[in-house]
Amino acid sequence: MNSESIQEHCLLRLFIWKDTPKVIVVISELKSNADGSGVALGFYGLSEMIIERFRRYLAIDKCEIEWFLHYGGFSAHESLGNEILEKVIPEIVHEFGFGKLPETTRIKSNFSEYLSGIELGKMRPILKELNWELQDGFGDPEWE
Questions:
Q1: Which domain of life does the protein's organism represent (predicted)?
Q2: Are 50 and 42 in contact (CB under 8 A)?
Q3: Label partner for 43 (CA 20 to 30 A): which of 29, 54, 100, 124?
């Protein structure tokens, strides 16, 4: 996702409504990413790849897509098991020496309220079904 060809991982979920022009994308950070990388830093490259790859299914302008970053015990040892959702505002860019980061608004609870009623589900069973192994970290024994 970034220019140094570091392989990064995420769980990508696209929710596309058939009866209304609505698309929600949830990008869940995974622990398997190296320090100093991840979905926020790679957001712009990843979002362009998603739009390109799924263009034929997206019946709306890319500016109308609702983007969310998702974090928790499945993504960082330091999370202490707290799940966080961040709504991305891609039009506002923060540039740093290490790259560009999008502006985000942190959502700490009632995620489905911001996701048009969608429940994200428990991460452990989702990753297990995908045969994705993550080692448990300290402070997050139940990142269900």
A1: Bacteria
A2: no
A3: 124
Q: For residue 79, is it within any domain?
A: yes
Q: In this predicted model, what pLDDT tens digit does every residue of 75-119 receive, in sequence order?
A: 875 666 678 899 998 887 777 665 678 888 999 888 999 999 999
In a domain, 43, yes or no: yes
Number of domains the chain is built from:
1
122: containing domain = 10-129
Q: What is the mean pLDDT of the chain?
A: 79
Give 22-42 pLDDT, tens digit per residue.
Answer: 899 999 988 876 666 677 878
- Give the residue ranges of DSSP H helices in 1-134: 43-54, 111-114, 123-129
Only one residue has tokens 């192994």, namely 133
Q: Give one word for 130, left, alpha or beta, with left for phi > 0 and alpha for psi -120 to 50.
A: alpha
Domain assignment present for residue 4? The answer is no
At residue 129, what are phi and psi to the nearest 5 degrees?
-60, -30
User: Does residue 140 sit within a domain?
Assistant: no
